Amino acid sequence: MSTPAVDARRFGSGLAGDGEPDQTVARDPDPELRPRSARSRLAPGRPIRFGLAIGPLLLLGLWVAASASGQLDPKTLSAPWTVVTTAWELIDDGRLQSNLLTSVERALIGGVLGVVFGVVLALISGLSRIGEALVDGPVQIKRSIPTLALMPLAILWFGIGEEMKILLIALSVFVPIYINTHAALRSIDARYVELAETLDLSRGQFVRKVALPGALPGFFTGLRMAVTVAWLALVVVEQVNATSGIGYLMFQARNYGLTDIIIVGLVVYAVLGFGSDLLVRSAERRALAWRKTIGS
Which of 5, 126, 128, 158 is deepest in the core (most CB within 10 A)? Predict the structure, then answer.
């Protein structure tokens, strides 16, 4: 017959034979239920507060130091304080705001069209073999052709107006959206499809409740690439017979050798690109809060 002390140890009750608590017999809690006081040594580590600002601030510090020490020729790259003064002058006379508004409008229209176009084509190709046969081949051909190489043809078709510029931005955006969304759709676990069939979901319900949520990680990866590509395309198209926009402002400054205005334009593009990437990453964290990754 077992003693009470043995039974206590066996069942983890923590009681010795005399009924008093026995500190030596308390069972260790399930490792899965323990609070994690520290991350795994192989993980990237805890997020650094305002860590994304460290790199840009280091670059700014190097720029300031090189300009102040005279190591950087102002004709090659204007000093930061010169750029700030020039930017203030452009703001004061209204040129920076008006051209910035035009650039943002072009990027938004072209970007939205490219995203919608890319998602629709990815759904057609990713959820249907017939759709893949019709869509994927032409998209892969377009992928191998740089969008800006299509500029001469776009000018012949649409002239040098806004249509050509928006078209080229949309074509630049839709490829990364399509590629990443299509790949995410094809990587959805087949068991979810079987479950949807068991629940007798319609095609529309399957797309809304299974396909689109499953494709979100790939979509956001493509979106981060797309916002960068959109600003790159904008830089080029705004220097082709444009009459407004940040690119036009830089083009005019180049003709007169005004390095400081060119740097102002580059800084504006950098801020727009970096800011839009931060917005996409913030939206991604909210939309994919259910994922547990090493970067979480």
Answer: 126
